[in-house]
Specification:
single chain, about 240 residues, alpha/beta, four-stranded mixed beta sheet, 5 helices
Length: about 240
Amino acid sequence: SHDNKAMVLGTPEHHRTLLIRAGLVLAGCIGLLVVIDQLLLPSLVHASKTVRVPTLVGKTVDQALRLMVEHDLALVQPKEQFSDKVPKGHIMTQLPYANALVKEGRRIYVTVSKGVELASVPNVRGMTLRDARLAMMRAGLTIGGVTYEQHDSVEANRVLTQSSPPGSELGYGSVCHVVLSRGPATIPIPDVRSLTLQQATEVLHTSGFTIAPIVYRSSSAFVSNTVIDQMPGPDSRQA
């Protein structure tokens, strides 16, 4: 009957059987964990061992590649960047950093110096100082010292010379000096009227002038060989 079956399932012997089975299952799980801990995990750890990242900063890419092979690491295609401190072709930065512990096969990122960025010097001769500054600025350069010199053919306040020749190359941001023209040098003409010809000649020669052909005129107001007029006049200036 249904009552008899219920009595059989509820016997102590049946409970003991269930407990034994549960114990066997638990023991099997513990045994499996022991196997994983003793055999499987060590093999996984050995398969992906850690290595210490070498110092790459300051080295060339070829040197870095050799170190990557020695340490079972991989070098990613380097990025390039201008630098006025690190020589061209040498590594500026690395990631991960030197001495970091990483898994073997880890990719290492580096930035390589392209050297000093160069700018081509423009020709600013004949320009005003303002235009010369703008031209230099567009080229990535700046105008530094400004001096002046007199010049017979270059207009005043125009660039006469520049310290770096046009077309030459300077480091980006470098300084170029210029010389501006003061224009022709002018000298006041001395007044030699009423002087004797000999005296006038000496005065003019002392001031750097030469005498053009002399024109003689009769005059009752002056003695012979006295200068009665001059061209250009004494109020003018000459280069």
